[in-house]
Amino acid sequence: MRALVVDDSRAMRAVIRDVLNQAKFQVLEAGGVREALAALEELGAVDLALVDWNLPKSGGLQFVKAVRAKTEHDSMRLIMVMRRMDLGQVIQGVRAGVDECLVKPVTRPLLLEKLARLQFIRSAEDVSGA
Amino acid sequence: MSGTARMKPDQMKPFVEGTVEVFQSLLRIRLHESAVELKNGTEGTFDLSAVIGFSGAAAGSFVLSCPGETARRIVGRMLSDELPLSEQDLADGMGELLNIVAGRACQKLDEAGIEGLFLALPTVVAGRHRVVWPLKDLPCLLMRFFDSDLGPFSIEVNMRLGASA
C-alpha cells in the first residue's frame, strides 16, 4: 500500500509517516499542492492521501478537487487534516470528495482508527508500535 | 472562588503522563518523573518554550520549555531523517509535539471527568525572557526532566477548573 502525505510542516509529515509506516504503508511526502500533484504524475496513483486543509497558497481543498477530477485516482481514499473541527470545512471537504476528516493533534490511535474505518487495517490493535 | 476550583498538584498528573507516553511512543525515549515544583516568576525555565492555551471545562496554559540544543535533538529525532533543521522545522516540531502531548493530557482529563477542553493553536517562543502570565492567584506547577538523553526540559501547567474562556 502507498500513501501520500501533503503538509508544509516536516514535523507533521514525520508524525503521520511514523504511524503509516507502522501500518505497512510506503509513504511519499509533499510540502504543497503542486509538489503533491507532480509526485502523483511521476510516481502514479496511491491508495491513500492525507492532506492538510491549511496548505499555504492554494489550500488542501485544491488538491482534493484536482485529484477527484481525474478518474485514475477514483480509488484513492482521502483524509483531510484540520486544525480544528469546523463543520463548514467538513461539508466543503466531503462535497469535494474527502472520505474522512482528522482534527489535529494527529495521534497514533486517532489515525489508526481512521485507517480501520477506511478498511486499510482491521483494527488499531492489529498494528504494533515500533 | 465563584464557582471555579484551584489546581491541585495531582491535576498535573495527566500532563506528566501525557508527556511520558508521547515521548515514549513518538521519540522512543523513556522519561522518569521528578517532583512537582511550584514555579517562581513568569520567565521561561529554558530558552525555548512551546506554549498552548486551553479553555472550556478548564482554562489555562501548558508550556514545554527546553534549551535550544534539546529542542534540536527532540525535533531531529521526530523527523528521523538526515536533512538539516531549519528554524521553521524547529518551531513546527516543538509546536506539534506540544500539541500532541496536550491532546493526550486532555484525553486523560476527559476520562477523569473534566470533559470539554478546547486547545488553542500552539505557539513557540525563543528567549528566556518570554512571560506567560498565569491566571490570577493561581500557582504555576512545574516538572523538570533531567535524565532524558535528549537533554533537560520542563513542563509547566497553570490551570483553573470550571472556568470557561
Describe the overall structure:
The complex is a heterodimer of chains A (130) and B (165). In chain A, β4 (77-82), α4 and β5 form a beta-alpha-beta unit. Chain A is an alpha/beta fold and 130 residues long. Chain A contains five helices and five strands, in the order βαβαβαβαβα. Helix content of chain A is 41%, strand content 19%. Chain A has helices at residues 10-22, 33-43, 60-68, 87-96, 108-117, and strands at residues 2-6, 26-30, 48-52, 77-82, 100-103. Chain A has a five-stranded parallel sheet, with helices on both faces. In chain A, α2 (33-43) packs parallel to α3. Chain B is an alpha+beta fold. Chain B is 32% helix and 25% strand. Chain B is built from three helices and seven strands; from the N terminus they run αβββααββββ. Chain B has helices at residues 13-27, 68-79, 87-111; strands at residues 37-38, 48-56, 58-66, 117-119, 123-126, 141-145, 153-161. In chain B, strands 1, 2, 3, 4, 5, 6 and 7 form a seven-stranded antiparallel sheet that branches. In chain B, a hairpin with a 7-residue loop joins β6 and β7. In chain B, α1 (13-27) packs across α3 and α2 packs across α3. The two termini of chain B are 16 Å apart. In chain B, 42% of the residues are buried. The model of chain B has no long low-confidence stretch (mean pLDDT 85). The chains are: A alpha/beta (130), B alpha+beta (165).
